[in-house]
Design a protein that fits this description.
Layout (H helix, E strand, L loop, with lengths): L1 H35 L2 E10 L5 E12 L3 E3 L1 H10 L3 H21 L6 E5 L2 H4 L4 H12 L6 E6 H4 L3 H12 L4 E7 L6 H6 L4 E4 L1 H6 L4 H16 L3 E5 L4 H9 L4 E3 L7 E2 H11 L3
Parallel strand pairs: 2-4, 4-5, 5-6, 6-7, 7-8, 8-9
Antiparallel strand pairs: 1-2, 1-9, 1-10, 2-3
Helix pairs in contact: 3-5
The structure holds ligand C2E and calcium ion (CA) (3 copies).
Protein name: Bifunctional diguanylate cyclase/phosphodiesterase
Organism: Rheinheimera marina
C-alpha cells in the first residue's frame, strides 16, 4: 500500500510538472500568436424565437496554432486572463466587431447587434469606457449595435464600482447581457439594480432539459422572472427542434445554437446570412 501511495504521488507530480510545462509552452505560443495574428473571429447567429428573424451574432475567438491546430478558447482564454493579455486582445476583438458592424450596414443589414464576450479583467480595466467611446466614434458605429456579455464572475467583484461602470457604458447605448446565467452566484437583488438588457441562460440547462424535468422548470422560471424584471432572455446551446419549440411555448425571446447555425468564420459570414436569412 505504501509503495502504491508513493507511485501515486510520483504520478501526480509528473502530471503537475507536465501541466505546468504545457502551460508555460502555451503562454509563449500565445505571445507569438498575438504578434503574428493567428487569431480570428467566428460569429454565431442569434435568432428571434417568435419570428425566426436574425437579430445578431455572438463573436467567438478562434486560434489556429501552426502545429497544434485549432486550440479551443476554454484552453487559452484563462491563460490570457491570468497574464492580462486578454485586455489588448479584447480591444482587437472589439475593433474587429465594429468593422464588421459597419460592413453589415453597408450590405443592407441595418439592425444586427454583435455580442462581445468580456472577461472580468477586461471589464475592470479603467481604460475600458474611454477606449470604447473612442472606438465607437472612430468607426461611427452606434452603441446600440454592440452588446457586452459579462459573466456572474465579473458581477460579484466590487459591486458599487461595477454598477458605476455599467451605468457609464449604458450612456453609450451599448447593450449589457449576463452570460452563463444560472451557473454563478449573482443574487436577484443585484440583478434588479443593474442596468442589464438581457440574460443568457446557460446551455447546461438546455442540454439537461429533456432528461431532467427540473432543468425545464428552471428555464421556464428564469424566463418568467426575467420578463418581470423587463429583461430579454436568450437561450444558448439550442440543438434540437424540440428545445426550440419548448422555448417558443414559454416565451423565450432569442435563441442561439447549432440548430440555428454553428459559429461562422468572418470571411464566410455575409454569404452565409444572405443564403439563410432574410433582411
Ligand atoms: P460562451 O460565451 O458561453 O460561448 C458559447 C460557447 O458555446 C461557444 O464555445 C460556442 O461555440 C458554443 N456553442 C454554440 N452553440 C452551441 C450548441 O448548440 N451546443 C453546444 N454544445 N455548444 C454550443 P467556444 O467558441 O468554444 O467558446 C468557449 C468560451 O470561451 C465562451 O463561452 C467564452 O466564455 C470564451 N470566449 C470565446 N470567445 C471569447 C472572446 O472573444 N473573449 C472572451 N473574453 N472570451 C471568449
Ligand atoms: Ca458568451
Ligand atoms: Ca454562455
Ligand atoms: Ca461559458
Amino acid at each position: 500500500a505504501k509503495q502504491n501511495g508513493g507511485n501515486g504521488a510520483q504520478a501526480y507530480n509528473l502530471d503537475m510538472y507536465q501541466r505546468v510545462r504545457q502551460r508555460v509552452g502555451l503562454e509563449q505560443d500565445l505571445t507569438l500568436a498575438l504578434a503574428q495574428q493567428q487569431f480570428s473571429l467566428s460569429f454565431q447567429p442569434q435568432m428571434e424565437v417568435s419570428s425566426g428573424k436574425l437579430v445578431g451574432f455572438e463573436a467567438l475567438i478562434r486560434w489556429k496554432h501552426p502545429e497544434r491546430g485549432h486550440v479551443p478558447p476554454d484552453h487559452f482564454i484563462p491563460v490570457l486572463e491570468q497574464n492580462r493579455q486578454i485586455i489588448p486582445l479584447g480591444y482587437w476583438i472589439i475593433e474587429r466587431c465594429l468593422q464588421l458592424s459597419l460592413s453589415l450596414q453597408y450590405a443592407g443589414w441595418h439592425d444586427l447587434r454583435i455580442a462581445i464576450n468580456l472577461s472580468a479583467e477586461q471589464f475592470s480595466d479603467p481604460e475600458l469606457f474611454n477606449r470604447l467611446t473612442a472606438l465607437l466614434q472612430q468607426y461611427e458605429v452606434d452603441g446600440r449595435f454592440i452588446e457586452l456579455e459579462l459573466t456572474e464572475r465579473t458581477l460579484v467583484q466590487d459591486i458599487d464600482c461595477m454598477l458605476q461602470r455599467m451605468q457609464q457604458i449604458k450612456t453609450l447605448g451599448v447593450h449589457l447581457a449576463i452570460d452563463d446565467f444560472g451557473t454563478g452566484y449573482s443574487s436577484l437583488n443585484y440583478l434588479k439594480q443593474m442596468p442589464m438588457d438581457s440574460i443568457k441562460i446557460d446551455k447546461s440547462f438546455l442540454s439537461g432539459m429533456l432528461e431532467n424535468r427540473a432543468d425545464g422548470q428552471i428555464i421556464t422560471s428564469i424566463i418568467a422572472m426575467m420578463h418581470q424584471l423587463e429583461l430579454q432572455v436568450v437561450a444558448e446551446g439550442v440543438e434540437t427542434t424540440q428545445q426550440l419549440e419548448f422555448l417558443r411555448q414559454h416565451g423565450c425571446d432569442m435563441a442561439q445554437g447549432y440548430l440555428i447555425a454553428r459559429p461562422i468564420p468572418q470571411t464566410e459570414l455575409l454569404g452565409y446570412i444572405e443564403q439563410h436569412f432574410t433582411q
